[in-house]
């Protein structure tokens, strides 16, 4: 069985550590998992007036989520919460009312930051939102990652120090997706 997982990165910048984490981490997944990177940078600011007439980028994101077997959120922490661009995407996908694209999609949360607390507050806030959106979210293992010089190799792989930990994280995450998928 093959599974398709949408990857949503909460940082838009080109040199994002979380983007690098997304690429390094997804390389640790089993062969039968495909990862689709979903761009949220072109979504307009959410406005409820547009619910009946959603723009093409919104429809594209909603369609990708609906077709997927689950969602992997990889996000920085901004001011002890998730970035506004990620909340914007979550709000778009939840609408129009009764057409919540996120519902029942299994999810995982991970992130890397410069601070020692490794996105823990952002992850906790995100859990709250995903609970409301009806997404069964992997509880363990948690992963709070702090950037260091050797976190990534030159080739963009996960460095030796974190590799087996993140290999296990990915193994648990993919099992979670398979468990909750209807396949
Ligand atoms: C940050 N950063 C940050 N780090 C953290 O651990 N806790 C926080 O609350 C914040 N707050 C915060 C707010 C804003 C507006 C910015 C721009 C940054 C620092 C953050 O960890 C660092 O910039 C990361 O490199 C951002 O992730 P990406 O863009 O590299 O993926």
TrEMBL record:
Pfam family, one: FMN_red
UniProt xrefs under InterPro entries: Flavoprotein-like_sf, FMN_Rdtase-like_dom, NAD(P)H-dep_reductase
Domain spans labelled NADPH-dependent FMN reductase-like: 5-145
A molecular function GO annotation: oxidoreductase activity
One cellular-component annotation, GO: cytosol
Protein name according to UniProt: Chromate reductase
Species: Polynucleobacter brandtiae
């Amino acid at each position: 069985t093959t599974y398709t997982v949408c990857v949503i990165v909460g940082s838009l910048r080109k040199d994002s550590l979380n983007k690098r984490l997304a690429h390094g981490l997804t390389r640790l997944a089993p062969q039968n998992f495909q990862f689709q990177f979903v761009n949220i940078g072109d979504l307009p600011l959410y406005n409820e007036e547009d619910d009946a007439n959603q723009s093409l980028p919104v429809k594209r994101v909603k369609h990708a989520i609906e077709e997927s077997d689950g969602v992997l959120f990889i996000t920085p922490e901004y001011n002890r919460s998730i970035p506004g661009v990620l909340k914007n995407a979550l709000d778009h996908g939840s609408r129009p009312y009764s057409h919540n694209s996120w519902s029942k999609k299994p999810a995982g949360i991970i992130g890397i930051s410069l601070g020692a607390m490794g996105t823990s507050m952002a992850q906790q806030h995100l859990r709250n939102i995903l609970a409301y959106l009806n997404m069964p979210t992997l509880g363990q293992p948690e992963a709070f990652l702090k950037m260091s010089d050797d976190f990534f190799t030159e080739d963009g792989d996960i460095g030796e120090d974190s590799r087996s930990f993140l290999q296990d994280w990915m193994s648990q995450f993919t099992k979670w997706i398979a468990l909750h998928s209807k396949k």
